[in-house]
Design brief:
Elements lengths: L2 H20 L1 H31 L5 H7 L3 H8 L5 H13 L5 H29 L9 H10 L4 H20 L7 H18 L4 H12 L9 H30 L6 H20 L1
Helix pairs in contact: 1-2, 1-5, 2-3, 2-4, 2-6, 2-10, 3-9, 5-6, 5-11, 6-10, 7-10, 8-9, 8-11, 10-11
């Protein structure tokens, strides 16, 4: 992996922490923007998938995931703050000594709060617009959310680990690339993978749940069921981003043993073996 990518991660983490310390309101607004961007992608994706769902087409999930990655593109290029991506950023920067664990926890807590506020505000906008007042326009949306809210906690936990593993890779891998177009295509493909696979993303779920709760919805959708989902999903996302991407790539960044040292060790082993054979 390119050294520049690690340096970029550290630089961004330091900048994010500085914004929170110097202007916390600005940071919260950036976090709210992430949820708005995800909301726009949700509106597009479910609008495209709804007729396929109504027709019982097996391409429904593919249509749902095809353009959902636009959310990540908007977040990266629109300078928004996403909780799930920050689990990777701050794990790597803290292990590098550029930030502290206290800095990391502060940013993650405020980012999560801002993402939640953004999800609620976006849902209120959509509710006021009356887009989903007719249940016929939201059948697939309600079906997806109803299932998400009632999966066993253990399944949600592992789906969340897998989800943020992929999402953080969708941020990390493009950092090794130069052209914006190849970065964008890579992001779209990675995000499509987690959507089609049915993995769980805490911030996307915040937006989905807020949206369905403010418009006419079935009884299976409730605040209690939303909390049932978000707790294990949030924990799983933290592990997926911090451990499976942040810690793994920091471990892989460690230099191998120096050639001179390795050669000396091999010579020492041979001398030891020779002395034993003489005995």
């Amino acid at each position: 992996m390119k050294k520049e990518a690690y340096e970029e991660i550290n630089a961004w983490a330091v900048k994010k922490s500085a914004i929170l310390k110097n202007n916390p309101i600005q940071y919260i607004v950036k976090a709210m923007l992430a949820s708005f961007f995800i909301g726009f992608a949700i509106m597009l994706s479910f609008k495209l998938a709804e007729p396929f769902f109504d027709a019982g087409s097996p391409a429904t999930v593919l249509m749902l995931g095809a353009f959902f990655g636009i959310a990540l593109v908007l977040i990266i290029y629109g300078s928004a703050e996403l909780f799930t991506g920050n689990t990777m950023y701050f794990t790597m920067s803290t292990m590098s000594g550029k930030t502290t664990w206290k800095d990391s926890l502060a940013v993650l807590a405020v980012c999560y709060t801002g993402n939640l506020l953004g999800a609620v505000f976006f849902a209120l906008f959509i509710g006021a617009a009356g887009i989903y007042n007719d249940p016929a326009n939201s059948q697939y949306l309600m079906d997806v959310v109803s299932h998400k809210m009632h999966y066993p906690a253990s399944e949600l936990f592992f789906k969340a680990i897998l989800c943020n593993w992929i999402v953080c890779l969708a941020v990390w891998i493009p950092m090794q690339m130069k052209g914006d177009m190849e970065k964008i295509v890579t992001m779209l493909l990675f995000v499509m993978t987690f959507v089609v696979a049915g993995f769980e993303h805490s911030v996307a779920n915040m937006v989905l749940f807020s949206l369905t709760l403010v418009v006419p919805h079935p009884e299976a959708i409730s605040i209690a069921s939303a909390i049932h989902n978000l707790i294990p999903v949030t924990i799983g996302n933290i592990i997926g981003g911090s451990v499976f991407v942040g810690m793994v790539y920091m471990y892989l960044a460690k230099p191998a043993a120096k050639p001179e040292r390795a050669a000396k060790e091999r010579i020492s082993i041979k001398l030891l073996e020779m002395s034993k054979s003489r005995r």
